[in-house]
Amino acid sequence: MPSGTKNSLSRETKILELQPASQDIWDSKYRLKNQKGKPIDKDIDGTYKRVAKALADAEKPRLRKEWNEKFLWALRNGAIPAGRIVSNAGAKEHKPSTSTINCTVSGIMEDSMVDILNMVREAGLTLKAGCGIGYEFSTLRPKGALVAGAGASTSGPLTFMDIFDAMCRTISSAGGRRGAQMATFDIAHPDIRDFISAKREDGRLRQFNLSCLITDSFMQAVKEDKEWELIFPANGQEVGDPNCPIIYRPWPITQGYQTNERHEVACRVYKKVSARSLWDLIMRSTYDFAEPGFILIDKVNEMNNNWFCEDIRATNPCGEQPLPPHGACLLGSVNLTRFVENPFSDQASFDWDRYKEVVRIFTRMMDNVVEIHGLPLPEQGEEIERKRRHGMGFLGLGSTIIMLGMTYGDEASVAFTDRIAREMAITGWEEGVDLAGEKGPAPIMEETFTVTAAMLAQRPQMVEDGIREGDLLPGKVLMANYSRYLAQFPEALRKQIAEFGSRFSHHTSIAPTGTISLSLANNASNGIEPSFSHIYSRNVIQEGRKTKEKVDVLSYELLAYRAAINPLADPQAEEPENRPTANFIDTNKISPRAHVDIQAAAQKWIDSSISKTINVPTDYPFEEFKKIYHYAFDKGLKGCTTFRFNPEAFQGVLVKSEDLAATTYRFTLDDGDVIEVKGDEIVEYDGENHTAANLFDALKEGYYGKL
Questions:
Q1: For the chain, where do the domains classified as CATH 3.20.70.20 start and end?
Q2: Closest CA to 609 of 488, 530, 527
Q3: DSSP letter (8 states) at residue 33
Q4: Fewer CB atoms near the end CB (10 Å): N or C, the chain?
Q5: DSSP string spanning 233-247?
Q6: 425-475 pLDDT, tens per residue?
Q7: Bridge partners (DSSP) listed for residue 199
């Protein structure tokens, strides 16, 4: 690289002109407009100014000007709040019924028609406000179980999920965004097989992501090839029936059920199955349909900062936020590409000082979002105000790794990921203590909790410290001294948390950042991911279109590379000198184990969870595919998700041109004729142009014209 280019190249990589797809997505999804469609935000900087002012207004009047300027500086230097914040902060005049919160979880769904329908109402209000929502459905009795007083048997949890699916499809989330839902289901529920296979039916449950709640005991049963008991809480008659096998297990609901001295619920054993056969069913469904996901729920609860007062059974729609009943969380990501100096050179470096300063200011900015949360349900508001949970993460990791000359998944990139997450975590919690001193800690820190036998069993260190059952301890002490996540932090910081508390109970989370990365980050790689491909297509929901729109994009690192080596050339041109080599790899060249290694390095310092997808080739062997999940479990992850392109199942959000060109779609016309079209060909239908793949998927799945 020529000498004397350090400063200009550094600036160039930070101010690359947005590619058309990025500009369009910002305009359609995040730019504030009035009810007539006239833009309020003049440009992207206008969007930043609106958000900065709205969040600075949560400060005391004398501090607002100072923090407005600092928040705006952070936004211009890579702090990117999540989509609901960017869309809705400072927009109350134009969108009074929307929320700045991305993530919520339903209350516990009790096994009664009244409660189920009440949860449908709550979910509808939540989706209407623009929030995604997760639910656990395995608290509902299995198919065929007797309904007391009705003289009939129930149709099972899956049919009730259909009601939520239809409700979500009917209610359009704020800003033209489709509603997002997650359904979790216990691996021991008698209807688990139906749950695993539910989305094999065309068009069914397409408003849901599905994930199994996988326990350590199930994984052990799989490894040892043991039988696995499928259970559900027993009714009074079953408990007294000598022919009905009963075991006691922890259950999210105890009221109305028989319990033992450990508050475990009496459960009927419906049947025993081979753990490995059930495991293979999950793996086959995931291999073919990319679902259900895989939430290691014991690890989630073991590592939860609020371990002493929460039992988590559900997550937000993308899985990065495990939340308690009526839990809610706001999100934001730091764009790592903004801190790379001298990319693609021997002098490439990362500006750690500026990164930590952005994290520090962004932490305060995100905390202020709690003051304007706009959540529709009182229970949700009380929960977020009590714990002030938020989830700061990062995006552009894959792009940044390439710009710094590393390869995604190699030893250097794993160490870099560890440091990125560690600096964010420690800096954020230091700021949390400072904010507690200035504004007061989260209320949960000052609350007093009674030590139970179960708590002592979970944390033997408490017994060694002389704590006994019945003792009263404040939340800040239970968190600082006995959180397994905070145990790795510097002792001085933990002592400060124990003494002063923190402004929040959770600080970090890595979200998928799909359209945020594409728009405001100029298609830097999503979240923790590598770049899917360097020239590819995204299928994006655009308001007014009947199918998803195929948008062609280049990766941020490819744009930056071309600008660096030939600043005068068209960055989208295909000249040979604009084609990088070496470490410019994408998901096709990255092993699944490398994906897991990167996720594990970050997870160590992330106190919530991580949304990550391991892309595997279509021809990846099934037996090797299953090993990915065992490796993820052994590495201590909280969850694992994979994606394998399967055109017979559905059309993904990210699509490689070569996959589309190699796939033939067949359409049957009204007169019975059949036409065959390649997936990337343009088809005119119903007065609108569509890619053949997107049209086929929309008609097959039943969402044509309903986006």
A1: 1-91+330-440+505-610, 103-144+155-315
A2: 527
A3: B
A4: N
A5: E--HHHHT-TTS-EE
A6: 999 999 999 999 999 999 999 999 999 999 999 999 999 999 999 999 999
A7: none
